[in-house]
Specification:
By secondary structure, the protein is of the alpha/beta class. It contains five helices and three strands; from the N terminus they run H-H-H-E-H-E-H-E. Helix 4 packs parallel to helix 5.
Length: 123
């Protein structure tokens, strides 16, 4: 069940006839792994956090470079030379403190991580 803060935060999407509180609760229970926080991963992370995905795992072993800033909208000039996953976690929590964010700053390797089962959420 959504608490008052979550209800207010997500009220616009809760008003959608096709969506509603049950769909929002499914989003809150979802876990999403984003591998790479560059030109596609960073805006995807912003939208998923804003929508209320419960847990975001952010995997990127790179540090932010000046040349990233014109297309990687999650970052700022003051973030240069910092790990992208760490900066992304900080910024996404500023956007939505109701999400759990896990920063993975090392390169993912199949031998080291258990394969996650893909999950489909239908509304």
């Amino acid at each position: 069940m959504l608490n008052d803060a979550a209800f207010m935060r997500y009220s616009r999407q809760l008003m959608l006839e096709e969506f509603g509180p049950q769909a929002q609760e499914k989003l809150a229970a979802a876990k999403v792994l984003i591998v790479g926080l560059g030109g596609l991963g960073s805006p995807a992370a912003l939208y998923l956090a804003a929508a209320g995905v419960g847990t975001l795992l952010l995997a990127d072993d790179d540090k932010l470079h000046l040349t990233n800033l014109q297309r990687q909208i999650l970052y700022r000039t003051g973030d240069l030379d910092q790990p992208k996953a760490t900066v992304a976690k900080r910024e996404l929590l500023r956007l939505n403190p109701l999400c759990e964010i896990v920063a993975l700053t090392e390169r993912l390797a199949a031998k080291r991580y258990v394969m996650l089962s893909p999950v489909s959420i239908s509304f």
